[in-house]
Write a structure and sequence with these properties.
- The protein has about 140 residues and is an all-alpha fold.
- The chain has a single domain, classed as 23S rRNA-intervening sequence (de novo design (two linked rop proteins)), CATH 1.20.1440.60.
- It is built from seven helices and no strands.
- α3 packs antiparallel against α4, α4 packs antiparallel against α5 and α5 runs antiparallel to α7.
- It is globular, with a radius of gyration of 15 Å.
Length: about 140
């Protein structure tokens, strides 16, 4: 499934939220959906059962931390959660690397590229918020 195809399946209630404008959120939500099938594949091999669990948990935390950070009212608080998302993205990328023997190189490489894109975005977001002391109330 491509990102464009996936976006069309996301419920309107999620797409209507101002959070949807945050690229890191959209990409990490997409990655968490991809990780569902990846984890099921990893669970088939006894050697990668733990990888499946860790991968799914790490990837699932990325969008959750972006959304929680987005909802904070100070730059410092937002930066903290964006840094949590950054850490989860890096962890997810490592688990994808560890699962590459079962997932296959094409799938693993595509997922690691996507997590690297999310890492760049969340790193930028955290740095921007660290430099900001503004208070914002979001709907």
């Amino acid at each position: 499934m491509t990102f464009s195809e996936w976006q069309a399946t996301v419920p309107a209630v999620i797409r209507a939220d101002s959070l949807w404008r945050v690229e890191a959120y959209r990409l990490s939500l997409f990655l968490s959906d991809l990780a569902w099938d990846d984890a099921k594949l990893l669970l088939r091999d006894p050697c990668t059962c733990d990888v499946a669990n860790q991968l799914f948990r790490a990837v699932g935390k990325i969008s959750s931390n972006v959304s929680e950070g987005y909802s904070r009212n100070t730059g410092k608080a937002r930066a903290q959660y964006y840094e949590y998302a950054l850490g989860s993205a890096r962890e997810g990328r490592d688990w994808y690397y560890n699962g590459r023997h079962v997932l296959g190189p094409k799938r693993a490489d595509a997922r690691m590229e996507l997590t690297t894109q999310i890492i760049r975005l969340t790193l930028t977001m955290a740095n921007q918020e660290r430099r900001s002391n503004r208070r914002v109330v979001k709907e």
